[in-house]
């Protein structure tokens, strides 16, 4: 059997003083704290490599915040960053709105809330899982080609696509309360494989001590 591990990394904190649900909007850069978080997760992987981990492949969403989070990881590991739209943020019809909780009191948006299990305001959860898992398996194949059995890849993505992929991997329902997501800024959700078989899910928070006070919009 060929063992491989795929690490799904959420980006760092974004500079967003107006509290906008930025979704797929361009040019939302990391804040100073976000850059510190990105350095922290890069060090996390560098330490793993120094301990013998075969970290050989790096992929990032095309969005600015993901690319900026991937940059120090690429430098730390000495690999290039491959861009893959399949690990992009989820579509969201509230994208661009400030203070989304306040906006939900406006009747004009109520039709978007008719089916939270899908969800009706954005890209279906199952569709997100399908595209992310396709990217995961492609990264698994490339990592094995580069590093052989035991190879590892890093994919820098976004909270919701990572979270629903984890829910699917653990056999849980995809519908959930956004406040319950265990996917903090620059957290690492790891999927372990033997060949194509998923054998385990792990979770780590390299930036845990930096999280208090960080801006952390659900769905951002």
TrEMBL record:
Q: Name one Pfam family in it.
A: His_Phos_1
Concerning SUPFAM superfamilies, the annotation shows:
Phosphoglycerate mutase-like
What is this protein identified as? Histidine phosphatase family protein
- The protein's organism comes out as Arthrobacter koreensis
């Amino acid at each position: 059997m060929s063992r491989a591990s795929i690490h799904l990394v959420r980006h760092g904190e974004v500079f967003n003083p107006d509290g906008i649900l930025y979704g797929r909007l361009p040019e939302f850069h990391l804040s100073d704290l976000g850059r510190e978080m990105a350095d922290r997760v890069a060090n996390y992987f560098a330490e793993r490599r120094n301990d013998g981990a075969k970290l050989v492949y790096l992929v990032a969403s095309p969005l600015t915040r993901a690319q900026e989070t991937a940059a120090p990881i690429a430098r730390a590991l000495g690999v290039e960053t491959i861009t893959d739209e399949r690990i992009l943020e989820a579509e969201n019809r509230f994208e661009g709105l400030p203070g989304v909780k306040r906006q939900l009191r406006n009747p004009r948006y109520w039709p978007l809330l008719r089916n939270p299990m899908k969800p009706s305001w954005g890209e279906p959860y199952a569709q997100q899982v399908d595209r992310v898992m396709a990217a995961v398996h492609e990264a698994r194949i490339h990592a094995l080609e580069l590093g052989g059995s035991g190879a590892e890849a890093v994919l820098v993505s976004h909270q919701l696509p990572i979270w629903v992929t984890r829910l699917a991997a653990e056999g849980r329902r995809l519908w959930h309360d956004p406040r319950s997501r265990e996917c903090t800024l620059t957290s690492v959700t790891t999927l372990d494989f033997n060949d194509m078989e998923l054998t385990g899910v792990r979770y780590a928070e390299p930036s845990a001590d930096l999280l208090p006070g960080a801006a952390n919009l659900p769905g951002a």
